[in-house]
Amino acid sequence: EFTPFFMVYGAEAVLPCDIIHDSPRVRMYEEREAELDRQDSLDTLEEERDIVKARSAFYQQQDRRYQSREVRAKTYNVGELVLRPPDKKKDKLKPKWEGPFIIDQVMTG
Questions:
Q1: Cβ distance 83 to 98 under 8 Å?
Q2: Gap between the Cα atoms of 89 and 91, Å rounded
Q3: Are the beta carbons of 56 and 50 closer than 8 angstroms?
Q4: pLDDT of residue 13
Q5: Please, which residues bridge with residue 98 across strands?
Q6: Which stretches of 28-105 are DSSP H helices?
Q7: What is the pTM of this model?
Q8: Are 82 and 104 spatial neighbours (Cβ–Cβ below 8 Å)?
Q9: What integer pLDDT is reported at residue 46 of this predicted model?
Q10: How does pLDDT run across 62-91, given as a tens digit for each residue?
Q11: Pairwise CA distance, residues 89 & 96, whole Å
């Protein structure tokens, strides 16, 4: 609903295409009225930023819940074959996994 430009400057940007195509926003622009609107929008800008912060926190909380719901505890037993991701993956053409490796010791903790 709110663009990053709006969150910084308190008003929507006027794009070059708006000027070229003579949009209603450009056509009906009046300096005096624009200044009054700007003052009004600055008064409500802090409230709108708070709304965005609350919405962002809500979405982050939902994302954390989803991610934690997808995490499954995995137990391994001695003798099983496993794959592991490489220590450092710099080349995108390299395999995503190394192995297989045989588990010879299981550690708890």
A1: yes
A2: 6
A3: no
A4: 83
A5: 84
A6: 31-70
A7: 0.49
A8: no
A9: 85
A10: 999 988 887 888 888 999 999 998 887 677
A11: 8
Residue 82 bridge partners (DSSP): 101
Task: Give the H/E segment covering residue 102.
Answer: strand 98-102
CA 62 to chain centre: 13
Interacting residues of 1 by C-beta distance below 8 A, sequence separation 6+ = none
Length of the chain counted residue by residue: 109
- Indicate if the pLDDT at residue 60 is higher than 90: yes
**Torsions phi, psi of 87, nearest 5?**
-60, -50
Q: Which of 61, 97, 67 lies closest to 82, judged by CA?
A: 97
Tokens in use for 89?
A: 């993956």
Count CB-CB contacts under 10 A for residue 27: 8
Q: How far, in Å, CA of 106 to CA of 74, rounded?
A: 12
Domain ranges of the chain: 4-70
The mean pLDDT value of the chain amounts to 86
Question: CA 83, CA 42: separation in Å to the nearest integer?
Answer: 56
